[in-house]
Each structure stands twice: as structure tokens, then as C-alpha cells.
């Protein structure tokens, strides 16, 4: 009678090792605050909400955020951020790029 799939996901407590393994695909040193900040930014830019930013999302997202449009800027950002060159910036790529921008 129980909904097993749902039950299972709720039952497993999110342990630290679990969280760490989720983050292993980018070797970042983000604090939880930074990660939250980036995640908010990412959500704002991912206009269609599919979990990745493409050039169209970026353009529209920047307009929505009130960022002045600089011709070629979105493309440059995409090129810089899209490390595996699949035409989309996922959150890992986004976070890495913001980190690099912050350091430089
Ligand atoms: Ca998107
Ligand atoms: Ca990519």
C-alpha cells in the first residue's frame, strides 16, 4: 500500500558522504554560501529552467536582471564557461567560471 520509491528517497538520510559525492564532478572549493549564491544566479539565468544555460537563456536572463546588453558579451561568456563545448553551461561549469572570474 505504500509508495515505495518516494518512501525510499525520504528514508535515506542525506549523509555528508552523499553530499560530497554529488560535488565531486567539479573540484571546487565553494562554501555553502557561495554555492547558494551561484545557484540563485544560475536559476535566474536559466530562463527556461531546464538546468542548463544556453546562449538564449543567457541573453534573456541578463535582460531580466537588468544587465546592460553588450554585443558579443553573452557569446564570450558562453565560450568561456562552456568547458566541454556542448553548447550549454551547466551548474558545475557556471560555478567554475564564476570562481575563475572572482580570482582574477
Ligand atoms: Ca535553460
Ligand atoms: Ca557544457
From TrEMBL:
Basic and acidic residues bias: start-end ranges: 1-10
Superkingdom in the source lineage: Eukaryota
Q: What is this protein called?
A: Putative calcium-binding mitochondrial carrier protein SCaMC-2-like isoform X1
* Native source species: Stichopus japonicus
What region holds the EF-hand domain?
33-68, 69-104
* Span list, region Disordered: 1-40
Calcium found in the keyword field:
yes
Q: Does the keyword Thylakoid apply?
A: no
Q: List the GO molecular function terms.
A: calcium ion binding
Pfam family for this entry, one: EF-hand_7
- Matching PROSITE patterns, A to Z? EF_HAND_1 (PS00018), EF_HAND_2 (PS50222)
Query: Which keywords are on file for this protein?
Result: Calcium
